[in-house]
Amino acid sequence: MSDYFRLRHVVLVTDDLERAKRDVPFVFGVKLAFEDPGAAVLEVVNAMFPFGLAFIEVMAPMHDGAPSARFLKREGGLGAYMVAFNCSDPEQRAARAERLGVRLAWRSDHDDFLCFQLHPRDCRATMIEFDRSVGEELIHNRLYAAGGYAWQQAVRMDETYGIDEMVLSSPDVVGLAAHWAQLLERDAVPLDDGSFRIATDMCALRFMSAPAASRETLSTLRLTVRDPASIVTRARERGYPVAADRVEMFGIVFELRAPPHAQSA
User: Fold this and answer.
1) What are the residue boundaries of the VOC domain, all occurrences included (predicted)?
2) For the chain, first and last CA: distance in Å?
3) Which of 94, 106, 138, 187 has the maximum number of C-beta atoms within 10 A of its C-beta?
4) Span of 16-25, 68-77, 116-125 with lowest mean pLDDT
5) 5-154 belongs to which homologous superfamily?
6) With 90 as the cut, is the pLDDT of residue 96 above it?
C-alpha cells in the first residue's frame, strides 16, 4: 500500500438537515451522494456532498443529548465539528496522538473501514479523525466508506470545483499551528501574512490569527468555483448571510474564489 495523507472530509452541524439537503445542492451546484444509516451509532442523521473529490458532511443530532446537540448549544453552531484525514496509517497516527496527550474519543473497526476520532478539547479548534477505507489509496476507488459506494456518480463540478483550504482561527495561532503540526506530522509553514499552512495530499489547512477573546474554531472553507457571484445570489435567495465573495452557512464562512485564469480574464 502506498503512503497517503488526505484532508478529505469536513463535518458541519445543523438543527435542520432537510433544509441543508435542499440548500447545499441549490447554492453550490453539488449533489447529495449518501445518507449513512450507520451514522446513527453517533446519534446523528447526515448527508454527504462531494465538493470535487473531497466531501462536506452536514449532520443533525437525533436528540438533545447527542454530542452534536451539545456542540450546537455550547458553540452556538459556530465552526466545523470535525475534519477527517484519509491515511494509510490511522492506527499509528492515533497511537502517536495518545502519546502526545490527546485522548481517543471513539474508534470504529469494520471490514472495509477503520477510524479513530480524537477528543475535540485535546485537538483544539475542531475534532480530528484519522481513517482508512479499503482500496482508497486509489482516490477514484468506488468505495469511500463515509461517502458510500456511488459517490462518484454524485460528483458535479459545473459550479463548484473543490475545497482548496480549511481555515482554523485562534488567538494563539502559533501554538495551534504547532500543535496540529505535531498531531499531523506535517510542517506548519509560516507565511508572510502571519498565518501558517499545513499541506496534505488533498486540500490544506491555514491557521489564521483571531482576536484575543475569540474561541478557536475551524471558521472558513475556501472553495474554487466557476462564478462566485452566482453562488452568492442563490445563497441570498435562500436567506443566508452573504458578502461579495462569501456565504455563511452552518456556522462557517464559505469563501469563494474563481480560478486564476478567470480572475485575470
Assistant:
1) 6-133
2) 43
3) 94
4) 68-77
5) 2,3-Dihydroxybiphenyl 1,2-Dioxygenase, domain 1 (3.10.180.10)
6) yes
The CA-atom distances, in angstroms, between 186 and each of 96, 102, 111, 196 are 13, 17, 29, 12
Half-sphere exposure of 202 (CA within 13 A, CB side): 23
CATH for 160-264, options being 3.10.180.10, 1.10.260.40, 3.40.50.720, 3.40.50.300: 3.10.180.10
Q: What's the rounded Cα separation, in Å, for the pair 50 and 36?
A: 14
Cα dihedral sign for 212, 199, 81, 226?
positive
Contact assessment for residue 118 and residue 129, using Cβ atoms and an 8 Å cutoff: yes
So where are the chain's domains?
Answer: 5-154, 160-264
**In 10 A of CB 245, how many CB atoms?**
15
* Amino acid at residue number 231: I
143 has a pLDDT exceeding 80: no
Strands 217-225 and 252-257: parallel
Kindly state the DSSP code that residue 215 receives in the 8-state scheme. Answer: P
Which residue do the cell numbers 480572475 mark?
263
